[in-house]
Design goal:
About 80% of the residues lie in helices and about 0% in strands. The chain has helices spanning about 1-40, 45-50, 55-60, 70-75, 80-110, 110-120, 130-140, 145-160, 165-170, 170-190, 200-225, 245-260, 265-270, 280-310, 320-345, 350-355, 365-375, 380-395, 400-425, 425-450, 455-490, 495-520, 520-535. The longest helix is centred in the N-terminal third of the chain and has 38 residues, at about 1-40.
Length: about 550
C-alpha cells in the first residue's frame, strides 16, 4: 500500500509539473509573439536576444526548477526537520544573495565589455544601435543575477515543503510583465513602436519587463515561504551552522557542470553577431521557441516516469531490464519527435507566418525564421534522445561522463559553427547544434554499450529505421497536401493558413500513424493506450 501511494503521489506530482509547464510555455510563446509583433526582427528585438543571454542563462542555471541551487536545497532540506529549515534557508539566502550582488554590480560596470566579448560583430558600423541597446538592456537586467539565485533557492525550499504548483508556474510572471509593458508602450506609440526612433525605448521596456517579472516571481515565493514557516527575508550570518556546508558542497560542482552546457549558446551568438543582417539573434530565438515549446512538454511526459525506473534498475542484476527501458525511452522519443520534426520541416512557412507574422514582423522575417525552423526540425529527436541517455548515466551514479561528453562537444560546436556558417548562413548555426547533439547521442550510446556489457544494436535499429521511414512519408504527404491546398485556396489570410496547416498536419500524422502501426512496437502501444485511458477518465 505504501508503495502504491508513493507511485500515485509521483504521478500526481508529475501531472502538476506538466500542467504548470504547459501553461508557462504557452505564455512564453505569447510573449515571443508580442515581441515579434511590436519590433519584428528590428534592433530592439535583436539587441534583447544578445542582452538576455546572461540574465537568461542565470535564470535557467541558478533559478531553474532542475538547476543546481534547486537540487542542492532539496537534497539537504529533505533530510532535516521542518523547524531546522528556516534558519538554514535564511543563512543560505544571505550568503548566496551577497555573492550574487557582487556579480550584478560587475555586470553593470562591465556590460559593454561583456557584450563585445560574445558579440563582437555588433561593433560593425550598421549595428551600433543594436550594441548600444544591448548594453543598456544588460545593465537594466543585471539585478536578475541576484534574483535568479534566490528564485532557485525558493524552488528548492517550496518543493522540499511539498509545494509544486507555484514553483512550476511562476516563470509565467516574466512573460506577463513583458506583455503588459509592450501593451502600454503600444497604446502610447501606436504603429511607431517599431520605428528606429523609439528602438531604445522599446529595448528599455523589454528589459524592464523581464526584471519586473523576476522580482514578482521572487516576491511570491518569499510570501509562500514565510506562510509555510520555511524562511523569511531575515538576514542570517551564521555560516558555520549545520547544513550550510552540505548545500555548498552540492551547489558548487553542480553549478559548474550545468554552466558548461550553456557555452554552446555563447558560441552561436558569437558567430551570429558576425552575420551582417540585423535580426539573426532574434530569428534564432523565435525558431528555437517553436521547437522548445512542444519539446519541453513532451519531454516531461516521457522523462518523468522513466527517471525513477532507471534508478531502480541501476544494479547490474537488473541491466537487462534497464536496457529495455532505455529502448523504450528512445523509441518514445523517436515516435513523438521524428514526425513532429518532419512537420516542422515541411510546414515551416505556414507555422511561422501564423505564429509570428503580425504587426512589425514581415514576410522577409518569416522567410528567415522558417529556414531556421527547418534546420531545427532535423534535430528534434536527438534533442530528446540525448536527455534520455544522460538520465541513464545519472541513474547509474555517473555524472562525470555526460559532463565530459558535453565538454568535448563544446569544441565541436565552435568548429561546426565556423564551417557551416559560410555555406548556410544563420541556418548553419542551427545545423551545427544538431550535428553536435547527434555526436552526443552516438558517444553516450557507445559508452553505455561498454558500461552495460553490450547493447542489442541490430534489434534496436530496425524499429528506428521504420519510424524514420514513416516520418519521411508523413512529411512528404503533408507537403504535397499543403501545395495542393495552396493551389486552390491561395496563401494569404490567417484563417486560410490555419485551415491549410491543419489539413496538411492531420494528413502527415495520419500517414505516419498508419505506417508506424505496421511496425507493431509494444512500447509505443502501451504509451498510447495509457494516454487514451488517462484522457477517457477525464
Amino acid at each position: 500500500m505504501a508503495q502504491q501511494k508513493t507511485s500515485r503521489s509521483l504521478v500526481g506530482i508529475a501531472g502538476i509539473v506538466a500542467a504548470a509547464t504547459l501553461i508557462s510555455k504557452v505564455f512564453g510563446l505569447v510573449r515571443q509573439q508580442a515581441i515579434a509583433a511590436a519590433f519584428g526582427l528590428g534592433p530592439a528585438a535583436d539587441a534583447f536576444n544578445y542582452a538576455y543571454t546572461i540574465p537568461g542563462f542565470l535564470l535557467i542555471l541558478l533559478g531553474g526548477i532542475n538547476g543546481p541551487f534547486y537540487s542542492a536545497v532539496v537534497s539537504v532540506l529533505s533530510k532535516r526537520r521542518k523547524e531546522e529549515a528556516a534558519p538554514l534557508v535564511e543563512t543560505i539566502t544571505t550568503l548566496i544573495g551577497g555573492m550574487l550582488l557582487l556579480v550584478a554590480i560587475f555586470v553593470v560596470i562591465f556590460a559593454p565589455q561583456m557584450i563585445d566579448a560574445f558579440a563582437p560583430g555588433l561593433r560593425l558600423g550598421h549595428k551600433d544601435l543594436v550594441r548600444a541597446i544591448a548594453i543598456l538592456q544588460l545593465q537594466i537586467m543585471a539585478p536578475i543575477a541576484v534574483l535568479a539565485g534566490l528564485i532557485g533557492i525558493g524552488f528548492g525550499v517550496l518543493n522540499a515543503g511539498n509545494q509544486f504548483w507555484l514553483p512550476s508556474i511562476s516563470p509565467l510572471f516574466s512573460s506577463i510583465t513583458v506583455i503588459v509593458g509592450l501593451g502600454v508602450l503600444y497604446l502610447e506609440l501606436g504603429e511607431k513602436i517599431s520605428s528606429l526612433e523609439y528602438a531604445k525605448l522599446g529595448g528599455i521596456v523589454l528589459a524592464g519587463g523581464v526584471l519586473a517579472g523576476a522580482v514578482l516571481q521572487w516576491l511570491v515565493q518569499v510570501i509562500v515561504q514565510a506562510k509555510s514557516g520555511l524562511g523569511t527575508l531575515r538576514l542570517r550570518f551564521d555560516f558555520n551552522q549545520p547544513g550550510v556546508r552540505d548545500v555548498l558542497k552540492i551547489m558548487g560542482p553542480a553549478t559548474f557542470s550545468s554552466g558548461m552546457l550553456q557555452i554552446n549558446l555563447y558560441t552561436d551568438l558569437f558567430f551570429a553577431s558576425l552575420i551582417p543582417t540585423i535580426g539573426v539573434a532574434a530569428a534564432l530565438n523565435n525558431a528555437s521557441l517553436l521547437v522548445q515549446t512542444p519539446l519541453g512538454i513532451i519531454s516531461n511526459m516521457i522523462l518523468v516516469p522513466l527517471l525513477p525506473m532507471f534508478a531502480r534498475l541501476a544494479d547490474p542484476n537488473n541491466w537487462d531490464e534497464l536496457k529495455s527501458r532505455i529502448r523504450q525511452g528512445l523509441l518514445l522519443s523517436a515516435f513523438t519527435m521524428l514526425p513532429l520534426g518532419a512537420l516542422m520541416i515541411t510546414l515551416s512557412v505556414p507555422i511561422v507566418r501564423i505564429v509570428y507574422e503580425h504587426g512589425a514582423f514581415e514576410e522577409r522575417d518569416s522567410a528567415l525564421v522558417s529556414s531556421l525552423l527547418i534546420a531545427n526540425g532535423f534535430g528534434m529527436f536527438v534533442y530528446l534522445g540525448r536527455d534520455v541517455l544522460v538520465r541513464v548515466f545519472y541513474a547509474l551514479g555517473d555524472g562525470d561522463t555526460p559532463f565530459r561528453v558535453s565538454m568535448i562537444n563544446i569544441f565541436f560546436n565552435a568548429v561546426f559553427d565556423y564551417l557551416l556558417i559560410k555555406p548556410f548562413g544563420a541556418s548553419g548555426l542551427v545545423l551545427a547544434t544538431v550535428t553536435v547533439n547527434c555526436s552526443s547521442v552516438l558517444m553516450l550510446l557507445f559508452l553505455l554499450h561498454r558500461r552495460l556489457n553490450g547493447l542489442p544494436w541490430r534489434e534496436w535499429s530496425l524499429p528506428f529505421l521504420g519510424l524514420i521511414a514513416a516520418s519521411i512519408a508523413g512529411g512528404i504527404a503533408s507537403f504535397a497536401t499543403l501545395e495542393l491546398s495552396q493551389h486552390y485556396l491561395g496563401k494569404e489570410g490567417l484563417l486560410i493558413l490555419l485551415l491549410e496547416l491543419s489539413i496538411s498536419g492531420v494528413v502527415g500524422i495520419a500517414i505516419f500513424g498508419v505506417i508506424a502501426s505496421w511496425i507493431r512496437l509494444p512500447e509505443v502501444n502501451v504509451f498510447v493506450s495509457r494516454l487514451g485511458q488517462r484522457f477517457l477518465k477525464r
